[in-house]
Design a protein that fits this description.
Layout: H1 6-24, H2 27-45, H3 49-54, H4 56-86
Helix pairs in contact: 1-2, 1-4
């Protein structure tokens, strides 16, 4: 079996770093983790994606990337919900109180 493309390795590492930053709860860590994620995404856009997707060794890596991306999305959603619960009410540009975010009544999970 051949090695996964470097662009996939960079993207997995960046997503892991972003998830760790989201879990830390530190805004500066999240901002710092955004840069490697942006660089990995830029590198991915420069690749021949259909050719990469056709490689058998890349398919497994794509599944890893999807799982990590879902994890980052879930952590980001939880962070937004916590912020809406803990932050004082915000006001919109017309001076009216902006509607609060309402947490969903169900939790979506993928295995």
């Amino acid at each position: 079996m051949t090695q996964a493309p470097d662009v996939f390795v960079a993207l997995v590492d960046a997503l892991d770093g972003f998830a760790a930053a989201l879990e830390s709860g530190r805004a500066e860590a999240v901002l710092a983790a955004g840069e490697p994620l942006a660089e990995a995404a830029t590198r991915l856009r420069a690749e021949d994606l259909p050719a990469l997707a056709a490689r058998s060794d890349a398919r497994h890596r794509l599944d890893d990337i999807r799982l990590r991306l879902d994890r980052c999305r879930a952590l980001g959603a939880v962070s937004a919900e916590l912020l809406s619960l803990m932050a004082p009410p915000a006001y919109g540009r017309r001076g009216l109180q902006a509607p609060a975010l309402v947490p969903p009544s169900t939790l979506a999970s993928k295995v």
